[in-house]
Amino acid sequence: MPRYRDEIIDEVRLRNDIVDVIGSVVKLKRSGANYFGLCPFHNEKTGSFSVSPDKQMYYCFGCGAGGNVISFVMDYENYSFPEAVKYLADRAGINLPEAEETPEERQLSSFKSKVMECLKSAAVFYYKRLYSPEGKHGLDYLRNRGLTDETIKSFGLGYSGKGYDQAVSYLRSKGFPDKVIDAAGLCNISEKHGMTDRFFNRVMFPIMDINNKVIGFGGRVMGDGEPKYLNSPETIVFDKSHNMYGLNAARRSRKPYLIV
Ligand SMILES: [Zn+2]
């Protein structure tokens, strides 16, 4: 993970008053030295959420949520630490220097972005196949489930094709090296068959991260194949413990739970 120098992080905190930042999303009322409001992290009718201008901290007496302005933005927006720092720096008009990365971190992040590009290309491939003659039974399946073309498009649904290496050949033709396709979780590799498509004759559901980037797929088989549902394996961009389908759409909904 990229790191910012401590002085920069201090400046970001100092130039974003916690009462202003929280006050822009939670209605706060002054009472003595502190401000109080309804906690954005749990459901309540009386304000047990307090913000201290002196300490530049917040604390909820109801659910125990607490921290500084950066942790508030992380929790409220579901941002990572660097994302929250970036957000607050932009808000205060601070020019962030490039985050410092070691050569290994730089190499890893450039590999990760190739993997993400590969997943995006795969999503385009699957989407186009859905509207090809081959994808007709997949499209019929989705329409019979009541999905409109608009929904299909906005979730980027697709169809994986029936050949053994259609996606792999397509991705190779787009210039992705085999190790990137493999790291994206889009193929199976065996001595007997070489590199073949992981997803075969399936309706495809892209799994997105909070920034609306494709990080994996779920696929439902058409017909009697097994397993009925197949997901991407865990990869360097898809951590199953931290992502779930529809998280990107649910991110700002402020609901305490997600329907999956
Ligand atoms: Zn609370």
- Largest sheet entry: 5 strands, antiparallel
CATH class of the largest domain: Alpha Beta
Q: What percent of residues adopt helix (DSSP H or I)?
A: 25-40%
Say which CATH homologous superfamily of the largest domain is assigned: DNA primase, catalytic core, N-terminal domain
Global structural class: alpha+beta
Strand order of the largest sheet: 1-2-3-4-5
Per the CATH scheme, the topology name of the largest domain is DNA primase DNAg catalytic core, N-terminal domain
Q: Report the bound ligands by name, code or SMILES.
A: zinc ion
Radius of gyration, Cα only, in angstroms? 23 Å
Q: At CATH's second level, what is the architecture of the largest domain?
A: Alpha-Beta Complex
| CA-based shape | elongated
Distance between the termini: 29 Å
Task: Estimate the strand proportion.
Answer: 15-25%
Question: Helix segment count?
Answer: 10
Number of domains: 2
Which spans have pLDDT < 50 for at least 5 consecutive residues?
245-260
Mean pLDDT: 88
Q: What's the number of extended β-strand segments?
A: 11
H/E series, N to C? HHEEEEEHHHHHEHHEEEEEH
